[in-house]
Amino acid sequence: MKIKDDNKKQLILDTAAGLILAEGLFGLSISKIAKKVNISQSNIYIYFENKNDLLKQVYRSRKLRVFSVISNATTNNPDFVANMIRAIYEDGKEHANDYLIIQQFNNSPIMQTLRIEDESLAEMSGVDNPISKPFVDAVARGEIRQTNPHLLAALAWQMAVSYMLANHLNYNLQDTAIEDVIAIVEAALKP
To answer: The whole model's pTM is what?
Structure first.
């Protein structure tokens, strides 16, 4: 029986992530990953039950890392919207690909097939989600628009990620300052 190597597992996850970015979710195969990592296909199954398990873990690892960044920036902070947007922007300087991977998953029907939200990400859904929680709390306090806080969180998330990706992937939005994006989102959230 082969022994698991955490470095090898991370290499497989990172290679799968790179292939997802290059070829899309449906272009990913165990054989392509094995070839790139220079291991046999059977060795991948030491770390992952199947391709779906591998996909879940790619998504989950990226999402948890991003959630940690956002949680650190927004927890117990009255200026949570601005801090969330700034944190996403700064994090994207080094980790823009994580946001692209998250977007690919979120925009794909594979989320239903993999049941990611129902299974492996249950702890991140609902009000415990560090993106949604400050919005839930602010709506409850009457500080922002009285509507579904998850919708408000999605608005802020999408604006922040779109702005970050446009800047860090050289779409050149330098004429639009991050403070302008923050002002637009905060104006949309006003009660």
So the answer is: 0.87
